[in-house]
Amino acid sequence: MSAEQIAFHVSYASVESATGDDPTVLAAELLREERVLAASRGFDGDESVFLIPVTESGHIVALDGDDRLRFELSTLALQQRFEAAGLTLHLGMSDDAIEEVDQELDEEFGAAFEQLDDPAAASDDLGGFGMPDWGDSDDDAFAMQPVRVAEFSRRGPWGARITAQMTGAEVDYLEAGTWSLYRYATDQPHMAVSGGGADEPIIEVNLPQHGEAWVEVSVRGRTGMFWPNIERLTQPVLDLDAITVPESADVYRRMMLEADGADEELRGLGMGEQIDLETARRACAPEALGGTSGELERVRAFVSAFGVPAALISAGVDDVAAGRRFTPRGWPRTVADLAVGGIGEITALTSRERPLPRAARFLRKRPGIAAALSVAELAVGLATSRARSPLVRGLGVLVIIDAALDLVIWVRRSLSR
Fold this sequence. Notes:
single chain
């Protein structure tokens, strides 16, 4: 077996019927007759989607009569076989076909694109260029629908305040052990805010009203994208258990398990034993191959692979349980609230037992002692500001400013208790 034959990619092929009917059963039968190592991903109302392995030389990976891999079936021959059965098999577009589509788009919409590139000549109405105009439509087909977002991390409440201000949405904040949850809904582009490595990993679950849920995992400057449900209903066309050559069965199984690239993305995060790789793989694997069953169950299982507590996952995914709620209040007020929140809010949950955060919690529970310390600091600053040395006097002024700010913060905290 040549290296060229071993190297193959999984093509997301589509199949259409001339009559508009669901072609899945007939297409699967044709692939089964050729013993192609294919998998079905179902019918979306217009076309059926299949996974078909194609070598670098443009040949289909299939089995011979002895269940060994064969590579003599060309993509053209397979397409002709489908055409004879009244089906159209799309296995991607050639370079010539892509250039032809580009030329057609340029001919039809080129004038409109040039006008859009020239703001001085831009018009509110592009209907004259063949571009559709939805400006007067009551039902905007492109209206963004809010996406429910659940961010799991080691961050304290500070990030929830900033997220609320950045997105303009209310953000619920919950804690469980050393993990926290930010929960909100937004139709705006957004990103997870982080204060550093101690906050990570940040696991952002996005649950749209329509379409597949996706998960973004960020750690040490790397971000992995995952769609736990994208391969959920994938079905092998051939009977895996009936394949008598173990190597062939292994290639077939791995093709379906690794089609979405989730395993490579997980390894690319470089988190080692911080991830339960087996649980994460099952959450992304087809149900027919032992993957986790159920759409939301797969999302829950994937997040749990990072060690997030089950109660926190349920609160985020099921949108239940109440916590602290932060609302957009304007940046000046947000900055003031962050100052009042102090060290306790900006400290990562895994670092709360260190001396400085513990001292901050001690003083926060005893505002009288904290205020007394600030008064003492103010007195020291006043005394220092009268020194002969300009440098010492400057330090004294800084101490006075710091003490005054501390007093304001402690008074604010006392009034809000």
